[in-house]
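Recap quiz, item 2
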Amino acid sequence: MLLDLSEEHREHLAFLPQVDSAVVAEFGRIAVEFLRRGSNPKIYEGAARKLNVSSDTVQHGVEGLTYLLTESSKLMISELDFQDSVFVLGFSEELNKLLLQLYLDNRREIRTILSELAPDLPSYHSLEWRLDVQLASRSLRQQIKPAVTIKLHLNQNGDHNTKVLQTDPATLLHLVQQLEQALEEMKTNHCRRVVRNIK
Amino acid sequence: MRPLEKADRMDPVSSEERIESGSASTKRPGPPVQKGFQMLADPGSFDSNAFTLLLRAAYQSLLDAQADEAVLDHPDLKHIDPVVLKHCHAAAATYILEAGKHRADKSTLSTYLEDCKFDRERIELFCTEYQNNKNSIEILLGSIGRSLPHITDVSWRLEYQIKTNQLHKMYRPAYLVTLNIENTDSRSYPEISFSCNMEQLQDLVGKLKDASKSLERATHL
């Protein structure tokens, strides 16, 4: 599958051959860093001064490179397809090799970052538990009522959330049984077939 | 066994039944209950049949969610002054709850009823009815109160993630687990849902299993 690069995108990338490889490599490093931590416009200004161009040009160059890397990583295109896609830009052999290397070196990490953008449900982090026995209450004395208190730690969009819950022994056994069945499902023939065949 | 301490707060008799008695250290109900019981003790006001009916009406009011004032609408109670009827009904219900709350035994009950001038037969009747309904009353009282949100059930979903608009060719299994919760005070039933991968679910199940093994060991001590 080839990447479809728009007119605007190509214009932005057209800056890259005008600087030497070390600069392109540096842009690549900046692009990945921005994906990790968010962009920092001051970097553009510093680079623009050093290269004697407008900071807009630098920004477009970096953004163009970022988009190239993220699209390629998202689609997980093969080396060959990447090379063919970049070929249409008419860059030098050396620049093409550099871009390919940038892609291969960073795509795993970029995919991890992209996976965090998916619609997010709270996800499990960990669980703490405690056994309690209720001995009395305002409305009834002399009780022996066992309960399990659970602190469930969840993550959502980077926020840590905890929920304190309780359950009784019978329900606890039921929960264990149901969730063990859930784990067993992955080992069934059906699931194995799906995993094997959808690639 | 000594009769229970005098209660300091006892509302004037109302026709509304109170499920929860407010006094923390009540072991002997106050004047309104005592007066009601003294009337109940009197064969002139309540014959044996009426006495039993009134007791049963008290239990019905407490245990039957649909019960209302009609519990006292029995032909064999018609001849009794309605004010007296309501007073005695409230007294009986109040005392039954107090006795239930403190897990009173037969001798405690007998002593108090003797003080109220109940004859032997009525004491026996009262204790029998009490014994018959003891478990239900205790379950009722035990269910009142605040507690943490309570997990009642779990459901799960196993999915195989193929792609998102941000990431193609994913190919990984994921679980979505939903815990059904009951909130006893607000009577609401929220749910807690979360996703997890296989390792995380194994961690979760492992910890729950630890808890249940611990529970098993504790119950054998």
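Strands of chain A lie at 123-134, 145-156, 159-167.
Residues 48 and 54 of chain A are 6 Å apart (CA to CA).
End of item.
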